[in-house]
Amino acid sequence: MKSPAADPAGAADTSGAPAAPLLSVRDLSVTFHAHAEVRAVNGISYDLGAGEHVGLVGESGSGKSAGALALVRLVPDYAEIEGQVMLDGVDLARLTERELRDVRGRRVGIVYQDPFSSLNPVLTIEKQLTEVVRRHSRVRAGKARAEAARLLESVGVPNAAERISDYPHQYSGGMRQRAVIAMAVSPRPALLIADEPTTALDVTVQAQILELLQDLTSEHGTTMLLITHDLAVVAGITRRVMVMYAGRIVEASSTEDVFTRPAHPYTVALHRSLPRIDERRERLMTIEGQPPDPSRPIAGCPFAPRCSARIDRCTMEDPPLMTVPTARRAAAEGWDRRMIREQDGGALFPGPAAPQLTACWNPPPPAEGSPDE
Amino acid sequence: MTRRTKRLEEAASRRNEESGRMGAAIANLRPRTFLEAYGVVVIVVMVAAIAAAPLLASDPLEQDLSVALTGPSADHWMGTDNLGRDIWSRILNGGRVSLVIGLFVLIAAGTVGVVYGAISGYLGGIVDAVMMRVVDIFLSFPAIMLALLISAALGPTIRNVILAIAAAWWPVYARLIRGQVIVVKEREYVTASRALGAGPMRNLFQTVLPNSLGVMKTIFVLDIGYAILAGSTLSFLGLGVSLPTPEWGVMIREALQFPNSWWLILSPGLALMLFVSAINFAGGIVTRSVHEIPGR
User: How far is residue B60 CA from its own chain's centroid?
Assistant: First the structure.
């Protein structure tokens, strides 16, 4: 799978990587068979190492949630999932619904975006927590209740011993999200998918919730996939970031690189649309145009119509993920796919040891230290 | 007992005293308009009287031909029927029969309808389509016609009346609950519960169904009245409870033979009207309590 002519700068060579990754996703596609065929996720591949915290960033409709929920098949019936999802050597895509039920919760926990709608309104927090405890460890009711109380306390709900008998509507948004997190981490999952966990919360509460997620996952060595549309959210707590656009991963790199030297015009544009504390701007930049209609196949790069660095090739051929040096040389010397593959050594995908990757025929120039011109 | 569990228990008991959800629900059950208050009072008085029938009146089957067909008097203050039986006693004891019919029809039709409709709505697809066509077949008969047919086939006993009416009514509940389940099963907390590893049974009966029952509560209360009416209707038509069991519908039927004895038809007619209308008036309270509970 490797080419001997591997790029010296690129760590496409995975021999230095730690043991097999916890999660390996290969060519995952999610297609919604609604009124039209909507390909929400278009063949993405990536690895998550054990205990890693990785951000998945993209705007609404970029396929980030669908792609993550499809891992445990929590998508509507009319969605078709293709590809391979290896969790600890087990292909989740091949499990039956019944087998998958034991994976959900126990191996893969999910924290949803909106704590106002992800709790059952007619049951007390205690009942809901106790149920989760009993579902995944066969303990007696009394012991499960004590465990539920301990869990609620551990996620920092004030007065947990009293508030546990409340109904969700008696909780504030932050407390509800804490309760949801308590349920998600209760069975000690190996992978925690946090699907925009702070989007529905006040800014002041957001930081607390992120800190809580960070603490709990670090404590138990849990791998976390943090889905967000907000670059600022991943800045503090993830080591790597994958940027999605139109169902594809367009850039993947360390969190630091994404901020200091983004390698895809879309990431650059995202930075420009962020408010910054260290400079005065009259108004924020926006990205012109709309994301492509996912029900229509695109010939070239999906970002090309909105891209300021667009070249002819962008509208004709979809760029694969490449290491940044390869992308630059490919741009300069007009390499075809085969040459790129040879240069990078096999198929490239984001992983714990992967270098900065970009899917762009005309990546931003290297000299640019800051995302701003 | 550890200190924490003790603290938990104390907290739990304290919260129960406070205005938790239960407290709020009870506060919501207080009547707010005159008609609601009237309905509650009438129901309470009538149910109490019906329950205490043996204390308040003589044997409803005891005949005394010497006073047959006499109007209201001090001894028989609602008068007597053609066999000299006390109407007051027959009204009270007949109320028992009517109430039993009403309650059991709801329990039977409600259970079958809710389970059937919930499964149909939750599974969806072809199963749902087939199950709902069965419901359509039942609904295509007028309910009372169906009940009459079943009752005629089974024979006139209290149990058969209940079965007949329940058989005619459950499709309505099935339809209703199916619609609710279809809405609720798409809510995020249902997916969230699946994400925690819940299987379909737990999902349906723990998560979806409890959140779908709101409307049913209202309909149930209102339908007690209609179930009683339906039971009386069957009896009136001679296909329900048969003589000598006292029942309001049967009593009205009998009274038709004696058009000159007005008291025979007045008492059971009034009893039915009072009771059923009172349930309708009081039903507003339940409607409100269901809609005003926050978090729904």
Answer: 25
Contacting A residues, span 139-168, partner chain B, CB-CB under 8 Å: 142, 145-146, 149, 161-162, 164-168
Residues of chain B with pLDDT under 70: 1-28, 290-296
What backbone phi and psi angles, to 5 degrees, belong to A86?
A: -95, 115
Task: Tell me if chain A has a CB within 8 Å of the CB of B1.
Answer: no
Pick B41-52+83-292's CATH classification: 3.30.70.360, 1.10.3720.10, 1.10.230.10, 1.10.287.1770: 1.10.3720.10
* Structure ipTM: 0.72
CB-CB neighbors (< 8 A) of B187 in chain A: 117
**Do A164 and B8 lie within an 8 Å CB cutoff?**
yes
At A152-209, the pLDDT tens digits run 999 989 889 899 999 998 999 889 999 999 999 999 999 999 999 988 888 888 889 9
Buried b (16+ CB within 10 A) or exposed e, B250-269: bbbbbbeeeeebebbbbbbe
Q: Is B98 helix (H, G, I), strand (E, B) or coil?
A: helix
Contacts of A118 in chain B (CB under 8 A): 188-189, 191-192
Asked if B196 lies within 8 A of A132 by C-beta distance, the reply is yes
Q: Where are the domains of chain B?
A: 41-52+83-292
Do A110 and B192 lie within an 8 Å CB cutoff?
A: yes
